[in-house]
From TrEMBL, chain A:
<dbReference type="InterPro" id="IPR003021">
    <property type="entry name" value="Rad1_Rec1_Rad17"/>
</dbReference>
<dbReference type="GO" id="GO:0006281">
    <property type="term" value="P:DNA repair"/>
</dbReference>
<feature type="region of interest" description="Disordered">
    <location>
        <begin position="345"/>
        <end position="375"/>
    </location>
</feature>
<protein>
    <submittedName>
        <fullName>SsDNA endodeoxyribonuclease</fullName>
    </submittedName>
</protein>
<keyword id="KW-0234">DNA repair</keyword>
<dbReference type="InterPro" id="IPR046938">
    <property type="entry name" value="DNA_clamp_sf"/>
</dbReference>
<feature type="compositionally biased region" description="Acidic residues">
    <location>
        <begin position="345"/>
        <end position="359"/>
    </location>
</feature>
<keyword id="KW-0227">DNA damage</keyword>
<comment type="similarity">
    <text>Belongs to the rad1 family.</text>
</comment>
From TrEMBL, chain B:
<feature type="compositionally biased region" description="Low complexity">
    <location>
        <begin position="376"/>
        <end position="407"/>
    </location>
</feature>
<feature type="region of interest" description="Disordered">
    <location>
        <begin position="521"/>
        <end position="558"/>
    </location>
</feature>
<protein>
    <recommendedName>
        <fullName>DNA repair protein rad9</fullName>
    </recommendedName>
</protein>
<dbReference type="GO" id="GO:0031573">
    <property type="term" value="P:mitotic intra-S DNA damage checkpoint signaling"/>
</dbReference>
<dbReference type="InterPro" id="IPR007268">
    <property type="entry name" value="Rad9/Ddc1"/>
</dbReference>
<dbReference type="InterPro" id="IPR046938">
    <property type="entry name" value="DNA_clamp_sf"/>
</dbReference>
<feature type="compositionally biased region" description="Low complexity">
    <location>
        <begin position="335"/>
        <end position="350"/>
    </location>
</feature>
<feature type="compositionally biased region" description="Polar residues">
    <location>
        <begin position="356"/>
        <end position="366"/>
    </location>
</feature>
<feature type="compositionally biased region" description="Low complexity">
    <location>
        <begin position="421"/>
        <end position="436"/>
    </location>
</feature>
Amino acid sequence: MPTQLQALTPSAAPGPVFSAITTSTRHIYLLLRCIGFMPTANVSISADNVRFSVEDSHSMQANVCLTPDLFSSYNYTPSAALHAAETGAPPSSAEQFNLEAEDDGVRFQISLSALLECLQIFGADASKDRQFGGSGGSGISGRDAAAMPFGRPATTSLFDANALRLPGTCRFVYQGPGYPLSIILEESGVTTTCHLTTFITPSTYDLIPFSRSSMTHKIILKAAWLHDALSELDSTTPETLTYTATTTSSSKKPHFSLSASGILSSATVELANNKNIMETFSVTSDSMHRYKFALIRKAMKAMSVASKVSLRGDEPGVLSMQYLIEMPDKSSAPTFIDFRFLPLTDEDGSDDDGDDGEETGGSGGSNEEGEDMML
Amino acid sequence: MSTLNITLSPLAVDRLYEALSCLAKFGDYVTLEARRNKLNLRTLNSTHSAHVLICVAGDTFCDAYNFVPDPSKLGDSPLFSSNGSQSSARVEEGAFVCKINVKALLPVFRGRYVQEAVNKERDESLVQGIEKCEISLHERENRVQCRLVIKLFCRHGVVKIFKLQYEEADIMYATFLKEWGVNRWTIRAGELKKWMEHFGPKAEHLDIGSEEDRANFTSFSEKIVDGAQILKHPLQTSIELDLIEFHEFQVARDTHIAINVKDFKAMVTHAGTLDQVQISAAYGEAGQPMQVTYDQNGMFCEFTLMTRKKGAAGPAGAGKAEPVAKIVMHRGTSAAAATSARAGSRETSAPPIKVQPQSSATRKVNTPTPGPSAGPLPSSASVHAAAPSIPPTASRAASSKSASGSAEMPPPPPPLRVTPRSGSVSAASDSSLSRGTPASARQPSLSLGFKGSLQPRPSQSLFLMDEDDDDDLFGPTPAGGVDDGIEGLLDDLDDDDVLGWDASLDSERVSFVELQERAVNADAGRKAAPAAEKQESEEGSYVGPTQRRDVVKGLFDD
């Protein structure tokens, strides 16, 4: 279990290990919300990115990498981290043994739900904002609204939070192990500071290994289609999802199909290798695996905002989904959210969690893989 | 093995979805009946007071329709005839009948029709919508898996396949004799739909009446607050339509019927989805079913709704609502149509909503009996007048058995014709006052009535028009008394009105016993239906305790 560090001694502050500034928290909020289904997240900060990972039931993981170009300024000072690590908390075993962890990264765990709430305070959530702005606006300008025949829409648009918001800055600061993650928003002279307690990353945290060497298929398709297919299956309230990818050469017609069955009915969605849907479709060997639908369902939020998804499976059946999310407001590079799922083993299968840790981890962080995906 | 293959266009799928969602408002299950040239979808609600038939023509509605009956079944009597001998006997030879949970069907057809994309780009990214829908039946002997398979062919080669489980089923027919349809009117669905929203969600019943040159729709509720004679929702909404709005209107003077307002709304809502369709209603007197039909482009819809028996408590003449099939009786007081004097001009047709305290009606009633307030039902009054005189005798026996069909209950005391309420009253909150008198007088008797009234009835009886119904309504019904212990039942009957039944009970005594015997006999061999349980709680018009579980047809009945 995570242990809260009590070493909050300002005197020892060696200067921030990490600090980043952005003018808008909205895109960060949108990204993190996609993995907001778990209350806590593991954070690892490196020179390349800030990675948020969540894990459910030890059988699924989701990672979001915030790259430096999401921030207007991004500073990572590993020396400070090392210094802090030496003098502060001992390095966790995960840090030492996880092959995929960046050597120089700092890792900690925070409450993701609290982080999301903080970002909402800063107005990242547009829908919440509209409510806020709307009610506030009508309160302030109630007379105007009443006078106008269409006062309500006018009010909401006039007092839309985004329209009213003055440019502000949001700063993320992490001073090192034992310090909270601070989020400081400065907005027209008002400064709001949130300190999120950090926890030691539990040593059991490992990335679900995905073996790229034994990859059986790689499919890149529009995320909307996957979302549509899964919501279709979801209507049957299924327990498990059966995921089938067959090689083009095989006589079977469906190249890629998802099916699920519930109490009243079963449903199957077959996606053909059609250029309008599939961007890449390469299957080296047929595969059919089952996954827990409740876990797959957690990726649906990411699915709904992503533009493309890359699906890959390896021999043991680990499913990797990578979502490409284009930033709406910026012309910056797209961001990736990475999900990994362990398959359900057959009922008569020998080991339930046998896949976990069976393979040596794939190399590289999810960000790299994401970039690969686009090639 | 039967073969069934249907091909539907996206638009037809959308219309099918509308039909199914309408059916879903009545019951949990849809019975599919495939015939050579048409597909019938039926639903019977949990109280058997409403039966909906939506018939889809094989040629005009479907792009392709092919049904080949199972040769082995041809000529054979249907498999399950034990309970519903009459109804099942009417199954056309070879027709394939099955029952599917509507919750499984709805998501399959939801949102399948998407208007043609205007620009190509959008079309490319459009995910929803289908190009074709194929429904086929996968039924094999010696195969465990028999499924109704629905294939949706979407854009870009995406195929969605749904395999639905189905159950063997029996067909229920609602009986509606032509001669009952003495009153009839026809109106454009859109016109009616405009006014439906004015009937609040808590309204239970809808009284339909007419006077002079206008038709009157009044919603009312009879739920009372526990332990007090206060209406829970003392709001009546009255809508008057000028007869000009009707395409046809032939209703006997002062005829009032009352039906479940939710059923009516569901029906009108569905009819409203069809373009410019004309709704035709036919009905007789209160207590006889009302049949509403409309059809368009190969879809024929028929709703058979039981009306409340006349004479039940209520300002208007409409008495208890007896479900279409005569299963459950509701006591209904229909609000007499409150009519404000209005100009007959067309403008007036847009009726203002009037709120009337129910009390107003009751106060005016001169009924000698403690029974229901008399409504403007002169004709019925004479018939029923005798009823109260009959001493309650057999009630005890009746009470001992749980009765399923309150329908059997004798009609409430004859409503004396009282001057119809005129003048709408502005919303009045003090229903308690007005109702207090009648309620208090009746209460004890009422409880009795309930017990006695409840009768186990085979579900099918509803549909078969039988003597019982008529007897109950119009015959002298000496009925029964009520026994102690009945009170307890009342608590359970939350939704039923407690008021105003006593008179009717007495009147129906004799017939009641007979009915009961009959019902019991019919019951033999029936089993509790699990499905029934679920349904019971859903419908507004049900009488929970009155219906025995074994009367309800369920999953494993057959």
